[in-house]
Write the structure tokens for this entry.
Amino acid sequence: MGTQVEAKLALVTGASRGIGAAIAEVLAENGFQVALLGRDAQALSSVEQKLTATGARARSFICDVADEAAVDATLARIETSLGVPGVLVNNAGYGGPFHRADEVSKQEWDTLFRVNVDGVYYLCRWALPRMKAGGYGRIVNISSIQGLFGGALSSTYSATKHALVGYSKTLAAEWGAYGITCNAVCPGYIDTEMLAKADPGVRKELLRRIPTGRFGTAEEVARLVAFLAGPHGGYINGSALVMDGGLSAHLGNDLPSF
Ligand code: NAP
């Protein structure tokens, strides 16, 4: 395959809001052309308009990452219209179901795996041989702090996010020799819509446990992703990079105040 990889073209899944929209924005600010992928046409279009208004190049592609045929068709359209992205950010995903492990239905389990894990597999399966042929690629999979630690009432989510860490490390080992890096980013609690909806008591308790005393921002995650995708990120490969304000650095005993 004599494929040309467009090093300054980034494909971001789940780019319609939250962390994905911030990643698209920061990558655009860093000179990338961005292919925005998601299911909500209106939300994607408003991100696209925001980016293009700044002079950046961005284009929306409506696609459910859990739908294998739709992903393949969308990727073919992206390849034909924009080329092969040098940067792939697998961000699309969601949390839940939030109940005890024995109460998780098979349908809930399968549905979450289809989005959080199968979707990443479809995109990487397509990107890897093309990036190899072009001799360049940067893959960033958005996992979670729950990809490294468990969390009560989120067994399914934690299992999907652990899967991404293992998958990212293995891709790094398999494909590193071909100019491709693959890393997982593991954010702690980031103040997106999902967290804004949480009960105030839950928010307060979470904040109490975070040494920096605040939630992270989508922009902070985006800037880490942009570093991995940028010219200085090439020697970080196979890492699971934690960004959680120190949440996972301690044993959960009461934090001293002084
Ligand atoms: P969000 O605001 O709910 O955004 C999720 C994005 O994923 C949306 O753009 C959504 O777009 C897209 N998406 C969901 N299912 C999809 C599907 N089947 N096909 C295509 N796109 C899909 O969530 P967020 O907080 O930004 O989270 C983004 C990623 O970071 C997720 O993988 C999440 O697990 C991870 N994360 C978040 C936090 C946090 O505290 N927020 C912490 C750790 C990790 P549409 O619904 O429009 O399709």
